[in-house]
Structures are given as structure tokens and as C-alpha cells.
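Reproducibility note. Readers wishing to regenerate the assembly model reported in the main text can use the exact inputs given here. Chain order matters: entities are listed in the order in which they were concatenated for prediction.
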Amino acid sequence: MNQFQYVRATKQQAAIEAVAKDANAKFIAGGTNLVDLMKRGIMTPQKIVDINRLPLAKIEHQANGLLIGALALNSAVADHQLVRERQPLLALALNAGASAQLRNMATVGGNMLQRTRCSYFYDLAMPCNKREPGTGCGALEGVNRMHAIFGASDKCIAVHPSDMSVALVALDATVLVSGPQGDRRIAFADLHRLPGDTPEKDTNLAPGELITAVEVPDGPFTKHVHYQKVRERASYAFALVSAAAALDLDGTTIKAARLAMGGVAHKPWRLTAAEQFLVGKPATEETFRQAATVAMQGAKAFKYNAYKLRLAPNTLVQALKTATAA
Amino acid sequence: MNPEPDTPQNHDEARRTFLKQSSVLTAMALVPSPVVSAAAAELDETVAAAFEKVPLKLEINGKKYNLKVEPRTTLLDLLREQLHLTGTKKGCDYGQCGACTVHVDGQRVNSCLSFAVMHDGRKVTTIEGLADGDKLHPMQEAFVKHDGFQCGYCTPGQIMSAVACVREGHADSETEIREYMSGNICRCGAYSNIVAAIQDVKQGGQKV
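Running the prediction on these inputs yields the following C-alpha cells for the assembly.
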């Protein structure tokens, strides 16, 4: 691993300034993704700013909903009574990700900023526009069975690996950010971006901007929720496809729905058209099938991931059925 | 209070001093300039240049250590290479196998995926710290009783994870145990015996 300068931050503003003025500096929180990437030489920061001593791990309920500090551990959030009662979908998604050990290290902020697990991004011998802009995309004509079916470009077809983010985008969360220019709020759906011509940028964060918390608004989605994750073994693997479903039911009639998919795009993929389709309709498999058809509009497969064109709608239907029965 | 042990890192001190001196000129050229500005602005309590070792206090298995580590040293490498606590195993070194599982402040973590300096002031428990003298920990006894291993390489990580699994309250059923032990891979496939060992400890009600 490359050597680097280590800075342990005790003040938030100091941490932000240290990273903002140095393009080769990175924040570190849990480290579960960054250390992995540094060991492989995929990321080679010259300065590491350790933010673990900043007081950003609180989980509390405020007027607008849950406020979850960026340094709250994935395990702490998933096990927290406020989260389980008010946002059970978030707890389900968190527990579907990684392993118990990793969830004890990984933070909420770090989880949403984790990099893609595209095997071409990880293979230094292969071209990758995300790792090294302008070198090409190895996955485009390669073994692309894990890759995107929505929103890809000819520069990058990688997918975002986070389960937690799929729940957060469905639940209309807001990311609280602090940066050299001050604080701002970003709708969760606008945090991550599609690859376009600049796949090296995973998010819309400016240099030095630090995620301080995520706000999850209170809503009616406290009972009929499910996170369905399909992977190649029963646990501890990234999703081939995942689906988050939250329903507000009046008897068997759907009053409101929140839907998103993971493993299908460069960002957690919100399904607003399918949500709108479901409003006022009965919560039946037939309706869910129709909603899944709506959700899949615009999907495009590559050579080895055409299976996702069937797996994704089936996963969504299963998530909706399980949510209804919950 | 335990006395401070004579840390094994001192054994190589002369060689390292020589290496440090001979490489210092090269290293100076590589020092990122912000080290000066960050320190000058009094931004942080700890700022270490890339070639410097950082002071680190840890309590490991009840013993207090005053250490100096390179920032890029992982907790796993510190335990194995500097402190010679080789019970904790390096399997994949990328957080995929769980062989390196230890407890930090009572929580199970992959020691391969964090830098040791990030744990300054914390308490670490490794497999060496589990037994009470010659008396094995109940989970160790259960792994022996149920044959919860073949080659044994994953076993320290399995046992550290299993202890945490019971303490966390995630050992109520076979399904739950399998889910919450999924971060520990066993290439020999001793899973059913590992599950039996954990269930035995859980049902036995012993303090873990």
C-alpha cells in the first residue's frame, strides 16, 4: 500500500478544509471500502483524514423524522428501536448488506459513498473510465453479468452496490452535507449520479464536502415493507438485483407506495412511475405484475445480464407481495 | 493494572533506525506539503507525515501497550507482525473471509480493514484473550466438543464471531445463527458443526 499522511480530525471544519484544499486527500470513517481499495492500489490517497472522533453518530427523532448521524454504524442503525419502529425498511436493507463484522465498522455516510464492485474497476490490468478516465470500459464488451440495465452510458455500465441506499432513496431521505462553502441539503435521489461522460464521479458532492447526517421523514411506511435481495448465495454477497417496497394500505387498497431497486444502475434506482401506477389499485399480484412492467420501461441489457430483465420485475413483485403480507 | 510489556517491536529497533535514517532523505522529498499547514493551523491533535510512525495506545487482552505504528499498518498486521499475536489469522486480507475477526470495545470487526491508528485508546480482544488461563472459554470448549473445524485456519475468527453472535442476541435459531455468522467463511465446510457449537453454548446459558 502507498504511504500517506494521517490526520486525526477533532473539529469538523478542520477536517473539511483539510480535504477541500487537497485533491489527494480522503476522509476515512469505517474504512471497510477505502482500505480495501488502497490495498489493491485502486485508490492511492496521499492524505487520510480520520473523522471517527467527530460527534456525528447520534440517532434521534426530530420534528421532521429520524436524524441519523453520518458516523452511526450500520449495525447500530439497523438495531436501533427508533429505526425499527419508524423505518423498518431501512433496518431490513441494512441487515441485508455485508456481514455482522462489517456492519459493526461501516458507517451510514461511508455506506452511501462506497464505490462500485465492478470487476473491471477492481482489475488494474483492465481499462476503466471510473478508475482512470479515458481508458475505456472493460465491462461494455466484457463479462457484464453483474452490470446495469438502467441509465448506463457507453463510458460506464457499473452499478452502485449499497443496499441501505436503495431503502433511503425509496423513503425520500435527505442528505445533510457540510462543506467549505457552508451547509446544504441534498435530496437522496440527487446524491448519486448517472455515469454519462464522467463516470469517475459517483456523486454530486463537491470536493471537501462531508456528509454529516441523513434525515428520513416520518411516513406511513411502518408495517407493509420489504427488502428483497437476490444474490448468488444466501447471505453476505452483493445483489444481482434487489427491490425495496413500502406500501400504505387501506384494507386491500394501495394508498401510497415507495419503490426502488438496487443492482440495476449507477445509482439507487427509484421507481416513481410504478409507485404512481399503484395508487388506488388493489394490492394483488396482478397489479404488482403491471407495476413491474411499468418499472422496467427503458431497461436495456448487455450480453451477459439479460437475465436481469426477468429477475428485476420478479424481484419487485416478490418484494411487493411480502410487503403486503407483512 | 498490568505492567507495560516489553513490546516485540523493540527487537528490530536498530535495523529500523538504520532504515529510517537511510530513507529519510528520500522520504523528505515525498512528504506532502499540507503536513505543515495543517499543523500550523492547529487543526488536529494528531498529524503524522507519511514516513513517520504514529503513537498508539491500545489495551489488548487486558494488557496496555504504548506503540508506534506506520499509519498504513492495519490492526491485523499490528497484531500479527509487531505484537506476534498470531492467533488472529490473515485469510483474504480484504474483509471477505472473517478469519481476522477480533473484538474492538466488545464489537466484532474485521481487523484487516482498518488502520490500527484509528483505534487509539480502544480495547482489543483476540482469540488469545478469550480463555481464562488454562480454562477454555465455553465457545472454545463447544468447538472442540462439536468438532467445529477441520484445518482450523478460520477457527479463531469463527470463535470470536460466535462469541459476539451470542452476546448480540443473534443466536436464537439455526437460521439466525447462519445469517449472523455469514461473514466467516470455512473452506472445509464445518458449518453444521459450528452451528451446533453455538447452539450448545446458547442453550447451555453459560456466561459468554
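We highlight two features of this model. Residues 230 and 273 of chain A are 23 Å apart (CA to CA). Chain A has a mean pLDDT of 98.
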